[in-house]
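thread: overnight batch results

M.L. [08:02]
morning all. the overnight job finished for the chain we discussed friday. pasting input first so we're all looking at the same thing
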Amino acid sequence: MVSNEDLGNKLDKLKSVVREFIKLIGDDPDRPELRETPERVARMWLEELASGYGRDPDEHLKYFYVNSANYVSTNRLVAVLNIPVRSVCEHHLLPFYGYAYVVYVPSDEVFGLSKFARVVNVFARRLQLQERLTEELADYLFVKLKTKGLLVMIEAIHTCALVRGVEEPLSMVTLTTRGQLSTDSGLRDEALKIIKTGKTSRNLRLLKP
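M.L. [08:03]
and the structure it wrote out:
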């Protein structure tokens, strides 16, 4: 955990960097509308967008019995759906956002429902690639859930494609499996069916500006 003193030092340094950035792109950081921008941007990165650095996802773990009514379940699988994902792509430092889906073979206990969102947030609030984020979540959850099988899927809109380049609201889906969900095609198909059935009705698509 970052101390208040360390956070203050980082904040001051990052504010200076943002001021210099504003100058380099051709604007004046001292004009009234921009005077507070360096601090706002520095706080946004340190306290929100990059807040996953130095955090331990284990601090969010809490287990409950597998018959929790909070889960969409079948006889063999537990699914946690529509977990919000908000991250920053490391290629252009622009956000990508969407949903994660976790399906696994339960052991004697499962995570509390909100813990999945908190764990995802720790890994997502860093400079990321969607592909790597998917693998990191799968590696972590496969061990911590003590499960025999796991599937993690992320569907996300990448704003680097929306505001630059092709300027289209392109989405990407990444999926990885562990254990029985890698080797048992029937079980994997069942997991994908649960995801398809339970997906949020909210539309990920953005209208082109």
